[in-house]
């Protein structure tokens, strides 16, 4: 304008429109961006500097259209709004009654410009007086850039439009009953909102959910909305009580930081106790015992048990309440009555061994394995004698305890080994023989008497052999068990010639026994002794095979003996050579050595004097004259010291003379 120079011509798109009826609308978004609205066309132009090489006679600036699009209606005014546009539109529509085109209410639209089109963000129809007679030129749009206010001017009215803030958005959401979205919006914009408080929106949301009957959702939202505000928590709990929905909020009540008044928790527990035992038990298990008055709840449960004394859920819950109250003895009684799996854990955790001294039978009836392990692990708290005494009237349980004790330590319960013989015989025959073998404290006579009374052959045989009566034991095996293999095995273990003789005598008229003996006797007794006694004409099963086996065993023995002889001869020769080499070696004799008889140095101090020294293979040294005269005619001399100590003769290896 200063240089009065046109830099660019932007032509009209629709030249049929009268400029006086449809004026051009201009506004500057910034110093270099001009927005043009004319008819139903919008152009956004950017003023740019021309490059020096392109100047010539052209202006130093030019305009480039960066966005261009058409609208559905005629433009009466426009203004920038950040990256968007506010457009005031003049609208014509066809009347449904007269089917004649008439003027409609003007519209205020917010659009997002695109390169060749636009996206409508919002649209509002404005009610102004006399809009039916107005033309496009009668409307104007002005804006206050600093205050984000827009003024819509018509012949009769001025409408002020203001950009909505987050408070307006929340108002709209609350009006539409979109409480969750309103709460989320308030949380996101909590620093900028002025009219609303998150807590108020949250409480309204809870009330809305309650009104809709969504009690569980309302209770769940209390955790987030009420937070640590104990007064609001208590208010909401009473509100849920009034509508009979205490159960819904019970799962979400705070248990730590904050903690509500004990009355609140007791009120919820009483509600469950009246209608839902399982739910009551769950709350007792989940809630810490210090949230409520334990005595009041215990009394309430006891009152209910009077009506239903066998209710396992109430009994189990009462035991847990007693545990919270540290009345472990009563809790233990209930757990034992219920045979509850936590009874052993309770005893260990709270060291209740003094309380179970008179309840050992109950524990054993419940789970004998766990009970015995626990009792044995805590012998210092409950002695073995006390346990055995408590189980006196239950011998089968007494046996279980003593058997486990014996397995752990063969000597701890030795005073009860005599009693255990009867217990094993009555309740655990398979373990009787191992017990008799491992115990060194049970009276053998008593054990033998019991086994003979009950006709326990294997145990009687073992006891007879242990008492030294092997012949009676062998006789019982042959007469009672009729088991030749067992008899042979027994004879092998005892390794007694008289037993073999008895076995042969007993078997001589029994062909099956003879066969067994022929097959097994070869390595212990000369088979000829047995063969000579077999009567002529007696039929013996598999005799040929048995004789072949005897010959093979004999041949094997010969081979073994020859092999052992070869090894023995070779070892003897090797050791003899080694001894000879050792004895052929020289022996160091110097001034430090002494005569073992006179204890003076073995070598004379004057080397010129003659001396005579005897050195034995055992390294003992003597002066010749100190050795006693031998009474034997043998030319070999022996060391007196080694001979006296029975270490061997220690024959002389060297005689030194000078």
TrEMBL record:
CDD domains: RING-H2_Vps41. The keyword Acyltransferase does not apply. Keywords: Metal-binding, Protein transport, Transport, Zinc, Zinc-finger. CHCR repeats lie at residues 372-516. GO terms for molecular function: zinc ion binding. It comes from the Eukaryota. The keyword Metal-binding applies. GO terms for biological process: cellular response to starvation; endosomal vesicle fusion; macroautophagy; protein targeting to vacuole. This is Vacuolar protein sorting-associated protein 41 homolog. It comes from Accipiter nisus (Eurasian sparrowhawk). One of its GO terms (cellular component) is late endosome. PANTHER family: VACUOLAR PROTEIN SORTING VPS41, VACUOLAR PROTEIN SORTING-ASSOCIATED PROTEIN 41 HOMOLOG. InterPro entries: Beta-prop_Vps41 (IPR057780), Clathrin_H-chain/VPS_repeat (IPR000547), TPR-like_helical_dom_sf (IPR011990), Vps41/Vps8 (IPR045111), Znf_RING (IPR001841), Znf_RING_Vps41 (IPR057779). It holds the Pfam family zf-RING_Vps41. Residues 595-643 form the RING-type domain.
């Amino acid at each position: 304008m200063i240089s009065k120079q046109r830099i660019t011509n932007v032509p009209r798109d629709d030249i049929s429109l009268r400029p006086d009826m449809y004026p051009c609308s201009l506004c500057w978004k910034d110093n270099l961006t001009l927005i043009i609205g004319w008819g139903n066309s919008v152009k956004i132009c950017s003023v740019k500097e021309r490059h020096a090489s392109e100047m010539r006679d052209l202006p130093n600036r030019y305009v480039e259209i960066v966005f261009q699009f058409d609208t559905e209606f005629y433009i009466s005014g426009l203004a920038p709004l950040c990256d968007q546009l506010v457009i005031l539109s003049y609208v014509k529509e066809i009347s449904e009654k007269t089917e004649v085109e008439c003027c409609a209410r003007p519209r205020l639209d917010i659009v997002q410009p695109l390169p060749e089109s636009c996206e409508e963000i919002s649209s509002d129809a404005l009610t102004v007086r006399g809009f039916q007679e107005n033309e496009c030129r009668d409307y104007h749009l002005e804006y206050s850039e600093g205050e984000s206010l827009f003024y819509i001017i018509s012949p009769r009215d001025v409408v002020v439009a203001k950009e909505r803030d987050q408070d307006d958005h929340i108002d709209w959401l609350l009006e539409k009953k979109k409480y969750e979205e309103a709460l989320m919006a308030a949380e996101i914009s909590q620093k900028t909102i002025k009219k609303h408080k998150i807590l108020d929106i949250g409480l309204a949301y809870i009330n809305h959910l309650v009104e809709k009957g969504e009690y569980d959702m309302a209770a769940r939202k209390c955790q987030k909305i009420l937070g640590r505000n104990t007064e609001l928590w208590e208010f909401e709990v009473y509100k849920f009580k009034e509508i009979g929905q205490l159960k819904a909020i019970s799962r979400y009540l705070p248990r730590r930081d904050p903690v509500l008044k004990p009355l609140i928790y007791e009120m919820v527990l009483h509600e469950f106790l009246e209608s839902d035992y399982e739910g009551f038990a769950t709350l007792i298990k989940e809630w810490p015992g210090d949230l409520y008055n334990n005595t009041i709840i215990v009394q309430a449960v006891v009152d209910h048990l009077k009506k239903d004394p066998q209710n396992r859920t109430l009994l189990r819950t009462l035991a847990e309440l007693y545990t919270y109250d540290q009345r472990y003895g009563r809790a233990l009684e209930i757990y034992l009555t219920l045979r509850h799996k936590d009874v052993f854990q309770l005893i260990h955790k709270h060291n209740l061994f003094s309380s179970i001294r008179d309840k050992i039978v109950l524990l054993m009836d419940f789970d004998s394995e766990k009970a015995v392990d626990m009792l044995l692990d805590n012998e210092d708290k409950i002695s073995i004698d006390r346990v055995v005494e408590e189980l006196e009237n239950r011998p089968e349980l007494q046996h279980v305890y003593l058997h486990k004790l014996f397995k752990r330590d063969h000597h701890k319960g030795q005073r009860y080994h005599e009693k255990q013989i009867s217990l094993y015989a009555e309740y655990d025959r398979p373990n009787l023989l191992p017990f008799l073998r491992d115990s060194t404290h049970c009276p053998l006579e008593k054990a033998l008497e019991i086994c003979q009374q009950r006709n326990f052959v294997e145990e009687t045989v073992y006891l007879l052999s242990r008492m030294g009566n092997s012949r009676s034991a062998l006789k019982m095996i042959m007469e009672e068990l009729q088991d030749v293999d067992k008899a042979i095995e027994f004879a092998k273990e005892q390794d007694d010639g008289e037993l073999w003789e008895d076995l042969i005598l007993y078997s001589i008229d029994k062909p099956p026994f003879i066969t067994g003996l022929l097959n097994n006797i070869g390595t212990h007794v000369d088979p000829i002794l047995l063969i000579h006694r077999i009567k002529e004409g007696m039929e013996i099963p598999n005799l040929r095979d048995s004789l072949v086996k005897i010959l093979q065993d004999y041949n094997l023995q010969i081979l073994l003996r020859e092999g052992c002889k070869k090894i023995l001869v070779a070892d003897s020769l090797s050791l003899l050579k080694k001894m000879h080499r050792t004895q052929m070696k020289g022996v160091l004799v110097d001034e430090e050595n002494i005569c073992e008889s006179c204890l003076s140095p073995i070598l004379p101090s004057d080397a010129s004097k003659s001396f005579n020294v005897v050195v034995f293979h055992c390294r003992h040294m003597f002066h010749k004259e100190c050795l006693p005269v031998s009474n034997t005619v043998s030319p070999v001399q022996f060391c007196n010291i080694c001979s006296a100590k029975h270490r061997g003769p220690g024959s002389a290896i060297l005689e030194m003379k000078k």
